[in-house]
Amino acid sequence: MPNSVRKHSFDESEAPTEPSPQYLSLQPKKNTVLVSHGRPPWYGEDGKRTCDAYVVAVAGGSGSGKTHVARQIVQSLGSIPTVIILSQDSFYKYHTPEELELAHANKLDFDHPDAIDMPLFAACLADLKACKQTNIPVYSFVEHQRLPETKYLYGATIIITEGIMALHDPALRELYDLKVFVQCDSDLMLARRIQRDVKERGRSVESVLDQYLRFVKPSYDNFVRPTATYADIIVPGSNNAVAIGLISAHIRRQLDERANQFRKKLAIPHLYFSGGSGASTPESRLEDLDLKVLPQTPQLVGIYTILRSKETSRQDFVFFADRLSTLLVEHALQYLPYTDKTVTTPVGVVSHGKKLDVKNVCGVSVLRSGGALERGFRRVINDVPVGSLLVQSDATTGEPLLLHAMLPHCVRFRHLAEESWVFLLDAQIGTAAAAFMSIRILLDHGVREDRIVFITFLVARGGGISVLRRVFPQVTIVCGAVDDEMREGWLEGYRGEGNPEGTGRPVWVMQPGMGQIGDRYYL
Asked: Is residue 477 domain-shared with residue 396, that is, in the same domain?
């Protein structure tokens, strides 16, 4: 993915049915998600969150240029992790029929603090700041009403909230790391408002002026302008390049201070963690790692022999990978809860058996190597949703980056996630960096640790699995084989220990391993 910021803004009718952290526009030119090179780890070696998302509030009068300032900040930041621009306009309250009649007659005050659902705004922002998912309301300016559906958001490193009342509520102000007020001349704000409402909302100049004199101007004088006293910085509504540069530099420094880099420690834990921390050496016993390893039958060993061989054709590799994934998923099903069930057979005899005792089951594939397990998963567990996570390594540091999250419906809503069992699919656990991030994502959504079943072809006993088991002991890990060794090298230009003159980044390769499983399966 290129390091330049990708910007997406489109109408509701164009919004994807399954929004992801890559792109999202909830209302035209208002709520937007922008992505560059992905989201780095927001947790430490113990699996706990080490930093919140960085929250910037942009307040100011209607037409002062708040949205423009928010977008200028993003553009000035350059190559950054995921950013959400969250508009206060999404949080207008639900209106009664009487209020709707007033709204369509331009007689309802939308500029008063009571028009905004401040508790819901604060609750959604608090979840995003704490690196959890949230589902924000969708408001229609055409219908003057909050719509029944909500929009799922997750994965922001930077959150920019903008709105006329962004600094009004004390509960919201407590969540901000940086508070900005956009100050603009009243005549310019009125001109901008007329242009926007006539062009984008289909209103007449007369109705815009009436609403401005009746509600907007009094609200600005009484509620909006006084909040400038809470701002850390006041930005002019035009010709503000210097102020934007200062704000962007400050945000970049904050992100640099919060950076977590520990993949190397996961890859070779016995060099960095003491024995008391639960870290392993290559000679660690499988019993200590608590892995659910398939019985090593001649059939299974034969399958792995075919999959390990570089002479195996892609057609044979796909066939035996699908066969192996089927065996793994069938084995993993025994770790779900079952309850008694009595049935009557076709010959009229009562038989006592078992049935699954779960409310929601889904799969999540860690792309792209996790896709090699999807066909087997669907063969064994019929008609369940399968989501995906795209976790790739940073080109410079080798640290994992979350580039994409498309999770099943039962995970996107917390009350459903708490009752769900999730099969996490990835081809191998070497350094365990991708596994670490994937599990952390599910926990952020409210999935219980003991309801995560990780299915994988291979585990490296000398890699990050020991740290993963120590941090997430209740996750069930089902694998087909265990390799002993992780070898450290360089992706390109390898010239010996430490690679003093070579180029590229460090990598850790499982041995004997199966090579690049995703490439062998798909190419």
From this structure: yes
State pLDDT tens for residues 186-203.
888 788 888 877 877 777
The backbone torsions φ and ψ at residue 290, rounded to the nearest 5 degrees and listed phi first, read 55, 50
What is the span of the domain harbouring residue 212? 12-254
Report helix, strand or coil for 410: helix
What pLDDT does residue 399 have? 80
Q: How far is Cα 285 from Cα 102, in angstroms, rounded to an integer? A: 72
Cα atoms found within 13 Å of the Cα of residue 354, Cβ hemisphere only:
9
Pairwise CA distance, residues 364 & 362, whole Å: 7
264: in domain: no
For residue 393, what are the β-bridge partners? Answer: 400
Residue 7 has pLDDT above 50, yes or no: no
Identify whether residues 308 and 180 lie together within a single domain. no
- 437 within some domain: yes
Residues 359 and 410: their CA atoms lie apart, in Å, by: 10
Q: Which of these ranges, 9-13, 254-258, 295-299, has the smallest mean pLDDT? A: 9-13
209 and 321 inside one domain:
no
Residues 212 and 322 grouped into a single domain: no
Tell me the C-alpha distance between 32 and 11, whole Å. Answer: 11
Question: Kind and range of the H or E element at 482?
Answer: strand 476-483
Tell me which amino acid residue 438 is.
S
Distant-in-sequence, close-in-space partners of 266: CB < 8 Å, separation ≥ 6: 45, 431, 432, 433, 436, 463, 464, 467, 468
Q: How far apart are the first and last CA of the chain?
A: 19
How far is the C-alpha of 209 from the C-alpha of 201, rounded, in Å?
14
Q: Are residues 146 and 67 in the same domain?
A: yes
Model confidence pLDDT, tens digit, residues 23-65: 333 344 566 655 556 788 899 888 888 889 999 999 998 888 8
Question: Which of 219, 188, 212, 244 minimizes the C-alpha distance to 68?
Answer: 244
Cα–chain-centroid distance for residue 267? 24
Would you say residue 271 lies in a domain?
no
The token pair that represents 292 in the structure block: 């659910």
What is the Cα–Cα distance from 237 to 228, expressed in whole angstroms? 14
Residue partners of 311: CB distance under 8 A and separation at least 6: none
Work out the burial of residue 114: count CB atoms within 10 Å of its CB; fewer than 13 is exposed, 13-18 middle, 19 or more buried. Answer: exposed
Cβ-based neighbour number of residue 417 at 10 Å: 25
Same-domain status, 311 and 191? no
Q: Are 328 and 294 in contact, with CB atoms under 8 Å apart?
A: yes
The domain spanning residue 23 has which CATH number?
3.40.50.300
- CATH number at 393 reads 3.40.50.2020
Of 28, 16, 133, 211, the C-alpha closest to 440 is: 133
The count of structural domains within the chain is: 2
Residue 175 has pLDDT above 50, yes or no: yes
* 287 CA to centre of own chain: 33
Let me know the angle formed at the C-alpha of 363 by 156 and 340, rounded to the nearest 5 degrees.
130
| Cβ atoms within 10 Å of 245's Cβ, excluding its own | 13
Let me know if residue 262 belongs to a domain.
no
Distance of CA 117 to the CA centre of its chain: 25
